Predict the 3D structure of the following.
Amino acid sequence: LFLVILILSYIFGYVLLRFIFRTWMMPEQLKQWRFSQQANKARKASLQGLIELSQGQWKKAERQLTRSVKNSDMPLLNYLSAAKAAQKQNAPDRRDHYLSLAHKSMPSADFSVSLTQAELQFAHGQNEQALATLVHLHSLSPKHPHIMVLLTKIYQDVKSWDDLRKLLPQLHKHKVFPEKELLKIEKETYVQLIQNTNWNKDFDKLQTLWHDISRELKKDPDLIGIYCNKLTQLKQNDEAEQLLRNAIRKEWNADLVKLYEIGRASCRERV
């Protein structure tokens, strides 16, 4: 009888202690369960928001991405995606608000947030703001290819050809663009600089600019013609004639021949 009572007492004490322990732990377990449920709900909302964003449902995407962001385990992604959705709805104020929240959610990701901000500003036509951000980011990470791509596009848009000329060596060095595309960018840059710069009879600066051009590009007949036209305007006819003669001798080009004949005729008239 004593053994039976002892065993029953042990069982009763174990059950009682377990009941007390589980009762004491219940609030914490309930809290963890609630947190897990909220996290799952936030994860589903974030996933649905990203799906809506990819489908072009900007308003729905913004609502889904911001609805449960406080319980999300990736708030940075939520805010950045919401900023893109707001941008698509032509709401730059909301976009900037989300970008600010993204920075606060993860200050260590300042570079990524700033790069996204610059991309959105550029896409929205806010070139000056985007340029200021990109110049700063480029100083922090001068080898970052995407930053150089964006800088190239902005310099072309705002017609800042001298800044683009200074960026060209880095574009070549890090092979940011395919070779043909980079050659096209380089050609456009020097064409614009030669044509649209007011040289004010400063032949030395024009000649220095020509010497900076790559050997491959100096063979381009369009660029040769533009440069020779500018030389003629600066009364550097002999220099233009010599360059045209050498270019025609290497490769026949009707436009350069015509320009050469015009220059020769002009010289005869002056004589």
In short: The chain has 13 helices and no strands. The two ends are 140 Å apart (CA to CA). Residues 210 and 227 are 8 Å apart (CA to CA).
